[in-house]
Design a protein that fits this description.
The chain has about 200 residues and is α/β, with parallel strands linked by helices. It contains 7 helices and 7 strands.
Amino acid sequence: MRVFKRIQRAVNARILKRWGHSSIKKAIWNEEFSSGQWDYLEHTSNDPIYDYLARYSHHGNVLDLGCGSSNTGNEMDASTYRSYTGVDISDSAIRKALTRAINNNRQLKNEYVCDDISSYVPRTRYDVILFRESIFYLPNYQIKKILNRYSSYLSHGGVFIVRMCDRRRHGSIVRLIETHHRVLEKSSLAEADIILVFR
């Protein structure tokens, strides 16, 4: 019975993270980050995403939508970007990200904003707008509209980079991107992982 309740709670949380009101999403993510549920993901320095970021950031501005505790902002080579903005709905994640930035002496280059990525309004233009394991938390019917809105915040020559851990499960998102955007690179990684670079 306990296992069934745990499974049911996980399924409910997954649905609410995608379809719930911002306040509900925030509460779920705060609980998960505060409990340490995502701590195991805090060391990803060997992830191939960093090669893509170095290649496309052009020593410019990077916007990381759904940054969590900011692996990206703390693990990417600091010489490859001018400024980094991480956005996450969880203030628990943002607090962890800020602490990590201070510990890594990146507090002058990195900033963090607690906001819902579906409605966040950037203050500048970016060379890279990154969705690293976050785009699939948006309802599919909103993704095209959200990408179109964020495209106005890309600098001249700027790109979106989307990284997903399961290209088969999220095939509809891959098809949506390929249909409505110009894909510059599409890399299938180990197992089912995928990285898409597009405008």
